[in-house]
TrEMBL record:
Protein name: VirB8 protein
Highest taxon listed in the record's lineage: Bacteria
Biased composition (Acidic residues): 84-99, 121-130
Transmembrane segment boundaries: 163-183
A GO-annotated cellular component: membrane
Primary site of residence: membrane
Localization of this protein: Membrane
PANTHER family given in the database record: OUTER MEMBRANE PROTEIN RV1973 (PTHR37042)
Keyword tags: Membrane, Transmembrane, Transmembrane helix
Organism of this sequence: [Mycobacterium] manitobense
Length: 317
């Protein structure tokens, strides 16, 4: 604030004592041209008051513009968090480009009074806007709400109906898998039982064919053995077939065989090993008269075309 010093010769002219007659008297023209000091001081104080009011008006206008800009930014942040919308980037520039008229210090008192009224209204608005407001709170709440909404949309929470349906589908697939496994195992068991029965019957027949002999039909018996054998066993027996038939005819042997039991020890789709228990009764020229004798044989079987034939025979204790 500018200061003005009072001139002693002007302000104190009427109060100072006069020691003598004035040496130089002012003329009436000079008294009219000289300004009144009291009026000058009043005008200076009014100018200072108007300048202060103008500064207050400027500050209030700036505060109001800043409050409006912050409010708009908060609204835009909340709108963009809830539903993203492309907005022109020049929105903030419009707020920054607002023109605030600042009255000059040298305006007339009437203009100063109008500015003072505007400043008072701006002060009221600024006082209302200057209340503590958390600008970041609405944006954070909107962002949190948006994130929860996205989480709810992206990962729906399971319901009891959904859980029950999932368990029902899971149990259905489990039952189907178990049923398929049981059917497969049942079919495999049936197939294994069929193969075992086939190999058991082939083993029993191989022992009966091999051990049953009638010297009256020796050649036919030897041929049956050849027809029901395969592999190296067949080749070896063919080489000794004539000798075997001749010995049977010379000794007049008649052998009857009864199979007591048979069981498959190992088997595959084309091979098997069968253990056969049998009893033979022999009659010959040496005096044997159907004396029973027990045998235990290990018979190897192989599939030859559509028949199962013996490939090796061993007597086991």
């Amino acid at each position: 604030m500018p200061s003005f010093r009072r001139k002693a010769s002007v302000t104190d002219a009427g109060s100072a004592p006069v020691s003598g007659p004035p040496t130089d008297k002012a003329s009436p023209a000079d008294a009219q041209d000289r300004p009144d000091p009291a009026l000058a001081q009043i005008l200076a104080e009014e100018a200072e008051a108007e300048a202060a009011e103008a500064e207050a008006a400027v500050a209030a206008a700036r505060a109001r513009a800043r409050a409006l800009r912050l409010r708009r930014q908060a609204q835009e942040a909340e709108a963009s968090a809830v539903e993203p919308v492309d907005e022109p980037a020049a929105a903030d520039d419009d707020d920054d480009d607002e023109i605030v008229s600042v009255p000059d210090a040298g305006e007339t008192p009437a203009a100063g009074t109008a500015a003072a009224n505007d400043a008072a209204a701006a002060d009221d608005d600024a006082a209302a806007e200057d209340e503590p407001v958390d600008i970041d709170a609405p944006a954070e709440e909107a962002a949190e709400t948006h994130s929860r909404r996205r989480l709810h949309v992206g990962v729906p929470l399971p319901t009891w109906k959904g859980v029950a349906l999932f368990l029902a589908v899971l149990c259905t697939f489990a039952l189907l898998a178990a049923s398929g496994y049981m059917i497969r195992e049942h079919r495999q068991a049936e197939r294994d039982a069929q193969l075992a029965a086939e190999y058991t019957a082939a083993g029993r027949q191989a022992v009966i064919t091999l051990m049953s002999l009638d010297f009256n039909k020796a050649e036919e018996g030897v041929q049956r053995i050849i027809d029901n054998s395969t592999g190296k066993f067949r080749e070896d027996f063919q080489q000794q077939a004539e000798t075997f038939a001749q010995v049977a005819q010379d000794s007049k042997v008649i052998t009857e065989v009864t199979v007591n039991s048979a069981a498959v020890r190992t088997m595959t789709d084309d091979t098997a090993n069968v253990i056969v228990s049998a009893t033979s009764r022999v009659t010959n020229a040496a005096g044997a008269n159907k004396d029973p004798r027990g045998w235990r044989l290990s018979v190897d079987l192989e599939r030859d075309g559509d028949q199962v034939k013996m490939s090796r025979v061993e007597f086991v204790p």
